[in-house]
Amino acid sequence: MPDATLYPLENYTFGTKDAQPEEDPSVAARLRRLESDFAEHGLRRSVEAVLVVHQHNHPHVLMLQIANAFFKLPGHYLKPGTDEKEGLLEILNQRLGPEDQNDWNKEQDWVVGDSLSVWWRPHFESYMYPYIPAHIEEPKEKKTLYFIHLPPEKELYVPKNMKLLAVPLFELYDNSARYGAQLSTIAHLLSRYSFTFDNTSTGN
User: Fold this and answer.
1) How many angstroms separate the CA atoms of 120 and 194, rounded?
2) Average pLDDT of the residues in 25-30
3) What are the beta bridge partners of residue 180?
4) Residue pLDDT, tens place only, 150-204
5) Most buried among 30, 62, 93, 192, by the most CB within 10 A?
6) Shortest CA distance to 11 belongs to which of 68, 51, 64?
7) Is the overall model pTM greater than 0.90, yes or no?
8) Exposed/middle/buried for 78, CB within 10 Å: 0-12, 13-18, 19+?
9) If we measure between CA atoms, which residue out of 107, 90, 93 comes closest to residue 159?
10) Would you say 180 and 63 are in contact if contact means Cβ atoms under 8 Å apart?
């Protein structure tokens, strides 16, 4: 059973930075772009980060909320040939790091840990599965979720068009109606960890 240390939510401070609008105006437009990218590059690889803190010794997952509606993990798709862990670090800095890229390495860095799950998109549709369905020879997208080891304290910079919320595991568990199939399974995925709850306050 792997070990991980979780730090209090109050150890992290939250700034803002310029908005990061969605690349596509609709789900249909996103899937059309996926089809175009697949024709040019083949399988799309996406990565997402599971950042975990604690409140009252209970794990909470940091999630972005868009337009007071749907939730998502920090992440994005990778450029062809990019290493998954290196690419995820760059994506995390783009999403939640300082506005100025020159300041990225000045912050205490996050550490990309184990892969938690892999999801596959068999067709140019919104559905993804934690397996490749039978008779699918060329899935269109592979998404990998990674556990992120956070430092004891860090300032996170949230795009102005998003909110960063700490969602407790008991809220995620068995709640696909609100969070969808992928996010609601995170409680299951984290059950393999032995968590140490560090309650040292850094005074932020």
Assistant:
1) 28
2) 83
3) none
4) 999 999 999 999 999 999 999 999 999 999 999 999 999 999 999 999 988 765 5
5) 62
6) 51
7) yes
8) buried
9) 93
10) no
What mean pLDDT is predicted for residues 119-132?
95
Flag whether pLDDT at 91 surpasses 60: yes
Identify residue 73 by its one-letter amino acid code.
L
Share of the chain above pLDDT 90, in %: 77
Of 100, 50, 98, 108, residue with least CA distance to 74? 50
Q: Collapsing DSSP states into helix, strand and coil, what is residue 33? A: helix
> Taking the CB of residue 184, how many other CB atoms lie within 10 A of it?
17
Question: For residue 61, how many other CB atoms are within 10 A of its CB?
Answer: 23
Residue showing tokens 């840990």: 113
Beta bridge partners of 75: 48
Q: CA 105, CA 93: separation in Å to the nearest integer?
A: 9
Query: How many residues would you count in the chain?
Result: 204
- Tokens standing for residue 44: 């799309």
Residue whose pair of structure tokens reads 């670090």 in the numeric block: 89
Of 154, 166, 172, the C-alpha closest to 111 is 154
Interval 86-110 mean pLDDT: 84
Distance CA 48, CA 77 (A): 9
